[in-house]
Design goal:
Length: 412
């Protein structure tokens, strides 16, 4: 089974997506997500200019060999662009292999280890009434676990608040928070960690009072605190029994988590900006985290993330795969197949894509009783409508950045 063609398809229905589409000499088509939010075109070039020429004529069945060929053969290893490109090739080859075997990918990965995947949705609000409405709306949609993001008094627009705006063409319909904003330059947002640290515990106190002790609640600190600030927040949130506190410190410094771990029992999740197992080694070996947040799309594909999760399993660390709207339906499907097959599945992030996106990517996953299931179509179970994709050309978009009150750039 030879790879006959490799196309890199860029489309922007509700937001930009980059998809690798491999076709074999037997007519099988495999898809891989290569979307890197706010830097999409860098991966397009990496694929088109450097990787695609290496794929044509290769044996599509040799997934691990192709992975090593691209990782070791590329000399310049790791990093978000390289690992998103390798991920797209890897997932497309797994899609093809499962189709050739006539089974859904999770069956090829070892079969189902559960009936479905517990998923969490994004509730948010500038104030408590808005937040409570959002929690209720997610409960009505069937979510059995909910991420809580709140506005902070004194800060205009911060990460994670859906009501900042509604997406063009989706007027009147709540739309989960899509952080990347279309435009020629990134938008500046303000930040004040001390105001945030004062406010967040009061919000969780109110949410628990309103919705009770059972429902799993998650929070994303989005990389903004120092180790001791993160320790302080983790401790102040202990009474509210969080499922996890995510990205409490910037990810580069793995040692920082030793401080946080020393001060709080709030479970910790990290890794959505990680790209290889090397980013996790200290965190996993020293049990400094409880959840691996990597997405298949940004961590070298199913082949590499499966290895990271098997390493994590030895330390009772579970998966918590990244699943915002900048992970395409192809990337989400890959996450669901992997998540259904591994033993140490924890939870899956699930932000709904928009209608235009659903018209470009035909999907077979199901959402039932708060559980996702990838479906039982052969392969990933996603087909790309190339004509529809062509009607939504790329639109430049950037993630915002942060400045503190004194003008200093801060982690966003
Ligand atoms: C976030 C993301 O979903 C999350 O956990 O951290 O929304 C993140 O901001 C985006 O994926 C960045 O592209
Ligand atoms: Mg996050």
């Amino acid at each position: 089974m030879i790879i006959e063609s490799a196309e890199v398809i860029v489309t922007s229905p509700d937001r930009n997506f980059v998809t690798l589409r491999l076709t074999t000499d037997e007519g099988l088509v495999g898809l891989g997500d290569a979307t890197l939010n706010g830097r999409e075109l860098s991966v397009v070039s990496y694929l088109r200019d450097h990787v695609v020429p290496l794929l044509i004529g290769r044996d599509a069945s040799r997934i691990e060999d192709t992975w090593q060929y691209l990782y070791r053969g590329g000399y310049w290893r790791r990093g978000p662009v390289t690992m998103a490109a390798i991920a797209a090739v890897d997932v497309a080859l797994w899609d093809i292999k499962a189709q050739a075997a006539g089974m859904p990918l999770y069956q090829l990965l070892g079969g189902a280890s559960r009936d479905g995947l517990l998923a969490y949705g994004h509730a948010s609000g500038r104030d408590l009434p808005e937040l409570f409405d959002s929690v209720r709306s997610h409960l009505d949609q069937g979510f059995r676990a909910i991420r809580i993001q709140t506005g902070v008094p004194g800060l205009e627009s911060i990460y994670g608040i859906a009501s900042n705006k509604t997406l063009e063409g989706n007027a009147g319909k709540r739309y989960d928070h899509e952080p990347a904003q279309r435009g020629e330059l990134p938008v500046q947002e303000d930040w004040d960690t001390r105001a945030y640290l004062r406010h967040v515990p009061t919000v969780f106190e109110a949410v628990r009072a309103e919705f009770g002790p059972e429902i799993p609640l998650l929070h994303d600190a989005h990389h903004r605190m120092t180790p001791i600030q993160a320790a302080k927040l983790g401790k102040s949130l202990e009474p509210y029994d969080l499922f996890w506190l995510e990205d409490c410190t910037p990810a580069e410094n793995q040692d920082a988590l030793r401080w946080v771990r020393a001060h709080t029992t709030t479970p910790l999740a990290i890794g959505e900006v990680f790209n290889t197992v090397w980013d996790y080694r200290t965190l996993i070996q020293e049990q400094l985290i409880d959840y691996v947040r990597s997405a298949v799309t940004h961590t070298g594909g199913i082949s590499h993330l499966k290895k990271i999760l098997e390493f994590a399993a030895q330390y009772q660390i579970k998966s918590g795969m990244h699943g915002p709207t900048d992970i395409s339906p192809v990337g989400m499907a890959a996450a669901m197949h992997l998540g259904l097959s591994i033993h140490n599945f924890g939870i899956q992030e699930y932000m709904r894509h928009g209608e235009k996106t659903d018209s470009v990517f035909e999907q077979s996953f199901t959402w039932n009783g708060g559980l996702l299931h990838p479906g039982d179509q052969p392969g990933l179970g996603v087909t790309l409508n190339v004509d529809a994709a062509g009607t939504y050309p790329y639109v430049k978009a950037y993630l915002p950045y942060n400045r503190l009150a004194d003008g200093t750039v801060h982690d966003w």
